Amino acid sequence: MDFGPYLFLATLEGAITAAVISLTAAGLSIVFGVMRVVNVAHGEFFMLGAVLSWWIATAVGVHPAIGFLAALVIAPPAVGLLAALADSLVLKRIQYDPERTIVATIGLLYIIQQTALMTFGPDARPVEPPFNSRIALPWIEYGEGGFALTWPWGLGTTTYKLAVIAAAIVVLAALWLLMKHTRFGLIMRATRLDRDMALAFGIPVHRVYALVFGLGAGLAALGAVLIVPVQQAHYLMGGDPLLLSFIVVIIGGLGSLPGTLVAAVLIGLSDGIISVFFSPTLAKILATLLVAFVLVFRPEGLFGRRRT
Amino acid sequence: MHDIDESRRSGCTTMTRRKAVGTLAAGALAASGAMPLAGRFAQAQSSEPIRIGFQVHRTGIGAAYGRWYDRTTQAAAKRINDAGGINGRPVEIIAEDDGTDPKRGAEVVEKFATQHNCDIAFGTLFSHVVIGSAPRAGELKLPYFVVSEGHHVASGILNRYTLQPGITDVKSQVEAMGPFVAENLGKKVTMIFPDFAFGHDHRDYFSASLERQGGTVVEKIAIPPTETSFTKYFPRIPQDTEVVYHVMVGPAILTFVKEMGEFFGPSSPEIFGFLDSLEAVDLASPGLEFLEGSYFWEGNPRYAQPDQSEHDKLYRAAVGVDDNGASVSDSKDVSTYSHMFGCWETLYVVKAGMEASGYAGPADRAKLIEAVEAMTEIPHSAEHPQGAKIFNGKTHQVFGHQYISRVSDGRLDVVHTTSIKDTFYEDETDYTAQSF
After folding, report:
1. Contacts of B264 in chain A (CB under 8 A)
2. Each residue of B208-223: pLDDT tens digit?
3. Please, what's the b/e burial string for A119-155 (b: 16 or more CB within 10 A of its CB; e: otherwise)?
4. Under an 8 A CB cutoff, do A1 and B236 touch?
5. How close B219 comes to chain A (CA, Å)?
6. Tens digit of pLDDT for each residue in B149-163?
7. What does each C-alpha distance from A58 to A72, A131, A197 come to in angstroms?
8. Is the ipTM, as predicted for this complex, more than 0.95?
């Protein structure tokens, strides 16, 4: 394939990764921003979303579109509910102590992963996309007769993959509106800025925490529900999104939503493009290197606000 | 490598193949009544089961194979026990999960030898697990019968205790595929394979086989076995490719094949795959329609063929597989039919070896290995339902027929069966020269 169309295809694939990672990382970022909890189990909530999505789609089973829609509506809130429960049963009991929450969420990670293995099993299972037709993409080429539209071999995508990108943009926009223009967003921001003051103003901080933890997990699950028709559900699938989310959140700045988005696009695209032209390992190496540089030269992240 | 070289050197002076066969003959003579007391003693032990440590991929990327390896193994053990066991003793399968992980694999082998007091270890598939476990089996002097398909046994990098008598290796499989691909599909081939030992075997030996037929491999695309999205790799397929040769493993194989279809759209080159890319995957899954008319290597035909043998019928029923290669209790649960017969056949080789050597306990492990090494022709039978085979005692590797099938109307129809001779290559090692 020629360089131009090749790069275009790699960018498109990277955009899908970016879309899913931005949702997952936004969840991680909100949880850290508001609660100061480093949620190591975040990737497992992602996996749960995918596994539940398979379960629901299979149980509904009439038409793939209905099954998928049911999964889209049910799975993220269900995962969110479970996360909220974990918050009040575990994290609240250890007073959100930073060190102990890390250990506790590592415990959660194993409990969720092994429960999925014991119930869902070790196999990868597909969810049928609600719609999926291949679109061949045109490419502009300069030939003898000037510019002309060509249809390079292999340059194409599917309608579903484009829908994933669109859905991620819509969800992120909704999340931004929720944070900036609703009462709940105000309360969340107040809790983030000063927990004690929020408590003094009568904000039920513990309930906010449970909601935020649930929201974060729900976002990860939503990302998974969107990607599972492309990738399949598997009990070990939580590892990569966790790592990528941390990379994205550190680069973008913990707690900064626009930063998370920019970093997700950066990491998603570079992962797509570098792994195509060089190797997937090099893509991971560069991402990790970038994290190191950000931590050294701009510890608050590209978009984070420096604490004074 | 050091250990192997050393043992090989010392082995030259102590044990030759002829000597080994001589010992075997003496053993057989002894068992046949020259020593009645010993015979009666063996009879007295008969209640003690023969313990076979079964190293199985229950979790990790090989789990789908593990599930079917387990069913096949249990079915074979039941059939052996129903027919009176081995040397009058029942067979007990002790299964341990290796997590499809080489490190865990070696630990499992150790558990078999030291905790479970197994007579032999048996079973696992993924080549990196075998390569990780075999040295430990050699150190523990535990016969290790693998059902792995990789070329690592016959290549000589393992040891005298590791044998592969129930399934053919990748090198012999692809040796036999090269001529078919070059003659029927095209001479410019792009290979897509997983980036570890098993995939490298495909890359190296298929390229060589194709070049001998006057073809060329125009591009080699290695994909990490844990990869979950594949579209980004496909643009590396050169435009002048006539045939895409694919072999993939791991939980994401369905995604792999689907994305390949989406990439090519209506203008695909010829496609030749190893069924590994579709093991445990329903051929009727949405998105796989483009495979219609493409070709697959099969180790053992998944769909019951019109000329199905009695033996395949019996084996299929015993394991619980229907005529479409899926579980009889769940038509969505598709088997790993191209590989799992290896478990059945290996257990019967073990049985034959133990009977020939008069195996009575761990002290006879070396005798068991010598007895298996002495095997040559294995006839097509209920014990070997995939077909006749020839075992090479020097390289510890079995050779057999390979099948090439074409996808038509959503099922696989065998269009070509290779001879055993097509799969031969020159010996690369002689394990019988190693000491025990």
Report:
1. 154
2. 999 999 999 999 999 9
3. ebbbebbbbbbbebebeeeebeeeeeeeeeeeebbbb
4. yes
5. 12
6. 889 999 999 999 999
7. 13, 16, 48
8. no
